[in-house]
Amino acid sequence: MNIGHVALIMDGNGRWAKARNLPRIEGHRNGVKKVNEIIDAAIDHKLKAVTFYTFSMENWQRPSAEVSALMGILNSYIKSEMKRLHNMNIVFRSLGDIERLPDKTRKLVTDFQELTKNNSGLILSSALSYGGRAEIVAAVKHMIGKGMGIDEVNEESLAENLYTAGIPDPDLIIRTSGEMRLSNFLLWQSAYSEFYFTDTLWPDFDKEEFGKAIEEFKNRDRRYGALPGKH
């Protein structure tokens, strides 16, 4: 079975740090090191898109010191990797309400998008200040603002107004750390996604387990509500 888009819920950074008697932020620092490994693996598997759940709307409720540290890690990553990823022909997309991001972070994100917008390789999306329900509400408001009539509102037109417009829905969603829920991630887009849950904490997740998840996906039968062999 072909696979084009994998989305990842990167969970377990805090627990990884706690198990080693380290500050929570060290878990996040080690977690970000895995991103490039998974990007490389996605290219090796000839994926069209890979999406990382980087920072949720709910994450704004965390202590301000942790939020600031997370933004600092994100800033450092973009500054150090932006040109390299651009040279790899990667297209960067941010998904979410980036107006809530600190000015410095928002500028780096928009600069990254602008730099890579004409590339034609892997679509690398980062869900930042993102919530699935908020995304759907924002799409509906955008459609109303454009003056769309009721007869113009359908699944296709709504999808075209989501943050993910132009990106195929995820075939597979991977969540690390043993939790088995979406946590408000890609609610519309995941309607027919397959799921892979692993007890591995995100800083320990690697390209081998990523490949294992993809192989498991390929052995599944996606019927989309139809009978076997009829889809």
Task: Domain count, please report it.
Answer: 1
Mean pLDDT figure: 95
Q: What spatial order of strands do you see in the largest sheet? A: 3-4-2-1-5-6
Element string (H = helix, E = strand): EHHEHEHEHHEEH
Q: What's the number of extended β-strand segments?
A: 6
Report the uncertain regions.
Answer: none
* Count of runs of 4 or more consecutive helical residues: 7
Span of the ends, CA to CA: 12 Å
Q: So, CATH architecture?
A: 3-Layer(aba) Sandwich
Which descriptor suits the 3D outline? globular
User: Radius of gyration from the CA trace?
Assistant: 18 Å
**CATH structural class:** Alpha Beta
Indicate the proportion of strand residues: 5-15%
Written description of the protein model:
This protein is an alpha/beta fold and 231 residues long. The chain has a single domain (5-131, 168-218), classed as 3-Layer(aba) Sandwich (Undecaprenyl pyrophosphate synthetase). Helix content is 42%, strand content 15%. The protein has seven helices and six strands. The protein has helices spanning 13-19, 24-44, 64-87, 103-116, 132-145, 155-159, 207-218; strands at 5-9, 49-56, 91-95, 123-130, 172-175, 194-197. α2 packs parallel to α3 (64-87) and α3 (64-87) packs parallel to α4. It is globular and about 55 Å long. The two termini are 12 Å apart.
Write the SSE topology.
Elements: E1 5-9, H1 13-19, H2 24-44, E2 49-56, H3 64-87, E3 91-95, H4 103-116, E4 123-130, H5 132-145, H6 155-159, E5 172-175, E6 194-197, H7 207-218
Helix pairs in contact: 1-2, 2-3, 3-4
